[in-house]
Amino acid sequence: MQSKLLKMRFGLLYSLVAAMILLVVPSGSPAVAAEEGEAFIVLPGEAPRYGGQQGREADITELVATAEQTGGVLGIFRQTIAPKSGPPTHLHGIEAEFCYVVSGQFNFKLGERVVSAPAGSFLFIPRKTPHTFQNIGTEPGVLLFGVTPGGLEKMFAERQGVDAETNQKLMAAHHMQIVGPPLR
C-alpha cells in the first residue's frame, strides 16, 4: 500500500512539474532550446549537497537539476528542513517557484495567507509573491522545489561559509529580497 501511494505521489509530482514548465515558459522562448540538449539523470545520493546558512545549519539542500543542465529552463532542488526551521519571508523578483511536500508537516505563508501543507501538498508561488515556510513537525521534513527560469538554485552552493554581508549580496544577485521575518 505504501509503495502504491509513493508511486501515485511521484506520478503526480512529475505531471505537476511538466505542467508548470509548459505554463511558465512561453513557447518560442530561447529556453525551449534545452530540449535539444543532453538528457540527464540524477540517481539517489548523486546530487551535490550543501548545508544551510548561518542559523539554519541543520537544513540540507541538494541540487537536483541546475540551469546549466536544463538550458536555463528551470532549477530543481530538494531541501531537508529541520524541525522549527524555515527561511525569513522573501520574494523572488524574476523566478516563479513551485514546491512539493515530500514528507513532514509544514506551514507556508503565501502573501498574507498561512496554510498548513502536509506531505503530498503542492504549492505554486508566482514571482514577486512574499512567502516563507516552517517545518512544524518533530522530525526533519523534505521539500522538492523548482524555480523557473533556473539559476536561483546556485545560491545554495555559493553561500557556503559566507558572512551575512556576502549572503545579502548573493541573494540580491539571485533576485531574492527579504521582506519579513520567518514564521514562528
Write the layout of secondary structure elements.
Blueprint (H helix, E strand, L loop, with lengths): L1 H23 L24 E3 L8 E6 L1 H4 L4 E7 L7 E4 L3 E8 L1 E6 L2 E6 L3 E4 L5 E5 L5 E8 L5 H5 L5 H10 L2 E5 L4
Antiparallel strand pairs: 1-2, 2-3, 3-10, 4-11, 5-8, 5-10, 6-7, 6-9
Which stretches are low in confidence, meaning pLDDT under 50 for 5 or more residues running? 5-34
Please list the strands of the largest sheet in the order they lie side by side: 1-2-3-10-5-8
Taken in chain order, the helices and strands follow as HEEHEEEEEEEEHHE
The helix-and-strand class reads alpha+beta
Return Rg in Å.
16 Å
Largest sheet, if any? 6 strands, antiparallel
Number of helices: 4
Overall form: globular
Could you tell me how far the N terminus lies from the C terminus, measured between alpha carbons in angstroms? 35 Å
Helix content: 10-25%
Strand content: 25-35%
Mean pLDDT: 84
Give the total of beta strands: 11
Word description of this protein:
This protein has 184 residues and is of the alpha+beta class. It has four helices and eleven strands. Strands 1-2-3-10-5-8 form a six-stranded antiparallel beta sheet. It has a three-stranded antiparallel beta sheet with strand order 7-6-9, with no helix packed on it. Strand 1 (49-51) and strand 2 (60-65) form a beta hairpin. The radius of gyration is 16 Å and the shape is globular. The model is unreliable at 5-34 (pLDDT under 50).
